[in-house]
Amino acid sequence: MRMKIGRFRIGLQITITFMVLTVVAVALLALYAMISIQISNYTRNGLEQRAAGIARTVSCSPTIRSALSPGGNPAIAQPYAEDVRQANDIQFVVVIDMKGIRLSHPDPSRIGERFIGGDEQPVLRGEETISTATGSLGRSVRAFSPIYGEDGQQIGAVAVGLPIGSIQDAIGQNMGLLYGAILIGGLSGAIGAVLLARRFKQMMFGMEPHEIARVLEERSAMLQSAKEGILAVDRELHITLMNAEAKRMIGETANSPESDFRSLIRMDRVVSAGEPICDLEVETGGAALLVNVVPIHIEGRIEGAMATFRDKTEIVLLSERLSGISLYAEALRAQTHEFMNKLHIIMGLNHMKRYDRLSSYLQEVVPSLQIEAGVVTNQVKDPVMTGFLLGKLSRLRETGVRLTVDEQGILPEAAQPSISRELVTIVGNLLENAIEAPRREGVSKEVYLGFRHQDDRLVIQVRDNGTGISVESLDNMYEQGYSTKGDDRGIGLYLVRRSTERLGGSVWFHRETGEFHGARFTVELPYRTEKEEEP
């Protein structure tokens, strides 16, 4: 919305001011026209009724009746009429008989002459009239009233006149009030127009309409081109914004009554509590989403919430390509670190010429490394899991935890890379929980890992000899964010259960009471090998 005059464009504030002033001016002009007509009519009618009232009063005067009665003295009409005229400050009071002859007049020389104007005929027939005519004193408004004698017969009439100028003056005086009101209204309208335009401009952050349109177009383009899904709701959780990526990931079901997507990503909690939620993992429609939800604040009040989310599958696809390399790299880093420590020991023994101690150290170290690596490579045929476990072995040695891999079970290579990724998530988090489990006093930390594959079913077992899990934590230990180890924890077992359910399996917990006397987690799930997939 922008006015254009020639080559010049006028800003929004000036445009609004001009338009409001135009509306005010038109309204005031219309008001002026209506009120001025009413003032003119009311003023004229009021003066005419005043003249008519004076005429009636004079017509009822005994003096005037006596002057017009047969045998009466006509000369007494003049003094009385002049007294009335001067007392009421009017132009004339003229008494006439039934022949139209004046008995009184402001100019005594005109007494005895015939009444001028031609508008006296109706009153001589007994009618009260008000008319405008030109007489000996000029143009005037005249009120006529008949005069009746004692016998009820009309014996004459009286005419009371007001000059047209006096009526116009009275109208002008009343119109002065209207002009003052119009002026005040115009000034108020102008001030209001300026303030309204300024406030409107502030509400629009000082931008012109074309600038706002451009910003909205840019915003819409940004939202629609974003790779993240964007969803905004108001205080009642009604969806106010959903970009194309959000519709692709969650469809139109988010706005349907039966959908609980907004509750699933906890938008209701964010709106009520005003606290953001970061990196929340949810599953909907078979897809895993990573969600961030923040409240929308307007002038210090929470007016809604906005969620951004992205399909983790895209990240997972890349991680599947790099997981094997990264796991092997981690294993090599740990082994290199450990190997450098052993080299330092060998160099020290050699420098001290303790060849006998050096020989026994080499006989002790080399077989243990070969045994550990040999057990993993012999029992675990999946390359991704092999690299992962080799890296874990080095970390376990650094932390002083002994890992035992069941030599009776074999883990064949998975038919699909996605299964290997889920297995790494399951085994990795279970091993981390076992490593971080509190130690029992006086007992070396040990962790056991076993695989059993039979009839397309895989059983994974991880147990430790720590203090175990308390009874109070059993009901909540799979919930995301629940942990007894401190803040920003509680994600491991949640990921284990999620990956297990994604593969169609189940996980359960047992309290060990034998040699290990700690925690034991068992995972059972369907597992097809690579050979079974071949035609």
Secondary-structure blueprint:
Layout: E1 3-5, E2 8-10, H1 12-59, H2 62-68, H3 77-88, E3 92-97, H4 121-124, E4 129-135, E5 138-148, E6 154-163, H5 164-203, H6 209-225, E7 229-234, E8 239-242, H7 244-250, H8 261-264, H9 267-273, E9 277-284, E10 287-298, E11 301-311, H10 312-351, H11 355-379, H12 383-399, E12 402-405, H13 417-436, E13 446-454, E14 457-464, H14 492-502, E15 506-511, E16 519-526, H15 530-533
Helix pairs in contact: 1-5, 10-12, 11-12, 12-13, 13-14
Structural notes for this entry:
It is a single chain. With 535 residues, the chain is of the alpha+beta class. It folds into three domains: 58-167, Beta-Lactamase, CATH 3.30.450; 215-311, Beta-Lactamase, CATH 3.30.450; 354-533, Heat Shock Protein 90, CATH 3.30.565. 49% of the residues lie in helices and 22% in strands. It contains 15 helices and 16 strands. It has helices at 12-59, 62-68, 77-88, 121-124, 164-203, 209-225, 244-250, 261-264, 267-273, 312-351, 355-379, 383-399, 417-436, 492-502, 530-533; strands spanning 3-5, 8-10, 92-97, 129-135, 138-148, 154-163, 229-234, 239-242, 277-284, 287-298, 301-311, 402-405, 446-454, 457-464, 506-511, 519-526. It has a five-stranded antiparallel β-sheet with strand order 8-7-11-10-9. Strands 12-13-14-16-15 form a five-stranded mixed β-sheet. Helix 1 runs antiparallel to helix 5, helix 11 (355-379) packs antiparallel against helix 12 (383-399) and helix 12 packs parallel to helix 13 (417-436). It is rod-shaped. The chain starts with a strand and ends with a helix. The mean pLDDT is 77.
